[in-house]
Amino acid sequence: MKNKEIKELIKLETKRQNEGIELIASENYASKEVRNACSSILTNKYAEGYPGRRYYGGCEFVDKIERLAIKNACELFGSKFANVQPHSGSQANAAAYHALLPNGGKILSLTLNDGGHLTHGSPVSFSSHEYNFVFYALKDGHLDYDEILKTAKEEKPDLLLAGYSAYPYAIDFKRLSEIAKEVGCLFMVDMAHIAGLVAAKEHMSPVPYADVVTSTTHKTLRGPRGGLILTNNEEFIKKINSAVFPFHQGGPLEHIIAAKAICFAEALQPSFKEYIKGVVRNTKACALEFKKLGAVASDSDNHLFLLNVLDSYGITGKEAQNKLEEIGITLNKNMIPNDTKKPNETSGLRIGFAASTTRGCIQEQARKIANIIHNYLKGTSSTEEAKKEVRSITSRWKKITSI
Fold this sequence. Notes:
Blueprint: H1 2-19, E1 21-22, H2 32-38, E2 49-50, E3 53-54, H3 60-77, E4 81-83, H4 89-100, E5 106-110, H5 126-130, E6 132-136, H6 145-155, E7 159-162, H7 173-183, E8 186-190, H8 195-199, E9 212-216, E10 227-231, H9 234-248, H10 254-267, H11 270-292, E11 296-297, E12 304-308, H12 309-313, H13 317-325, E13 329-330, E14 332-334, E15 348-352, H14 354-359, H15 363-378, H16 383-394
Parallel strand pairs: 1-13, 5-6, 5-7, 7-8, 8-9
Antiparallel strand pairs: 2-3, 4-10, 9-10, 11-12, 12-15, 14-15
């Protein structure tokens, strides 16, 4: 009975994904090959340790799979070393912090309300309990490198952290690396959101400049849910490996590691570069259309932008998120720079096109999506009218099971 209930819920979720427009910037649709690996018999295998150094027998084939995942990751990002075992981006960050600062220390990161991640010093995260976080802020919505240098000189951090969850502009990793060197601290980048853009060479890579780079594999990289750590430093990879296992994790998820190997291989193909170019085009087109309609929206250099719904429509991000879900458009409330609302309300929305572009979204449709959202939040279109417009777009896209 319970299995039938789960199957029915999976069917309903499949229907929701097929019929709706997914604009959550951290979500995407993995390929059939990636999904097949995730559900393979590799889930049965315990493999604590690393290839060639396991605590269990019977690891001959999972060793080869994990080595292949490491090889593909290093080739994709131009890194000398990789750890593909982190279960998530948060786990990757926890391990990286421990490897770089085993006795704790001070970390300089972006103010959370301006686009930092929970693991970048949020009071509700382990990060703020184990490390002393201090912050730099955006200026007019952009990174101010001179101000970051000034703050770094005042705070004297042990680690400078970059990489953000809601920053719509290009990041100068070379400049940040120079700041870290000038103040004598380590430099780490969490590129979870832009990993796909980095892989496709549509964004500057942090790998040549950072001591350690962390990422997820499921956002713009379009792989399974999981984490990744990269470094060019042989001493750091030894510390990273120990920090992942046995310090933070037990047995690695070899079925997910197989899926990571596939996703890295997919991202090495020319078609992936074209996909990422499409993501950037669609995001820019949608953001520009909102501006033409009179809404307050950021520009975008990547896969996401921010929409100020409080100033544009007189409602909070939470209200806008809930209202748009009524018509099958999924996105998330998000703090915007200098936000006056609380994190559970927010003044803005974060809008991303990684998932919709995977299904076949083109610029004309991205502009149409802006109009659907604008008219519905303004109250000039009814729920049924908006639903019909959403269905009109998604009916032309790939079904998620055929990706």
